Amino acid sequence: MTEQYLPVLLMILIAALTAGLILALNALLGPKQKHRKDFPSKRTPFECGSDLLQDNNRRVSIRFYLIALLFVLFDLEAILLYPWAITGRSLGTIGYIEILIFLFFLMVAFVFAYRRKALDWR
Question: Which domain holds residue 96?
């Protein structure tokens, strides 16, 4: 049984050693700042080589995150429905019932988001 996991463990070990070696080489051979001067321009974001026109530390509305989360949810739904649509006839009754259950839970999520006014932009 352990013989089956030996290649996987060996691959994990090689990946960890490679990552450690790269980090060690970066620390040893990378550029060092002996006389570091703290310039204020190094702490500002680069915007086309010109000074910032306004301070961009504004809060973003939570609505943007809700819409993005709903987009990911329904995009995932479309990705999961596509293979079912391709192989729908060969799945039979059990596959049809499973997709109906999936669509039911998806509809519950949509109704929940609608009632919580997650889709209302006002």
Answer: 61-122
Average pLDDT over the chain, rounded to whole? 83
Among all chains, which residue has been given the structure tokens 């479309």?
Answer: 78
User: What's the half-sphere exposure (Cβ side, CA atoms, 13 Å) at 86?
Assistant: 6
The secondary structure of the chain in percent helix, strand, coil, rounded to multiples of 5, reads: 70, 0, 30
Single-letter code of the amino acid located at 12: I
41 in any annotated domain = no
Half-sphere exposure of 122 (CA within 13 A, CB side): 0
Dig out the tokens for 110 from the structure: 């949509």
pTM for the predicted model, two decimal places: 0.47
Binned at pLDDT 50, 70 and 90, residue 95 comes out as confident
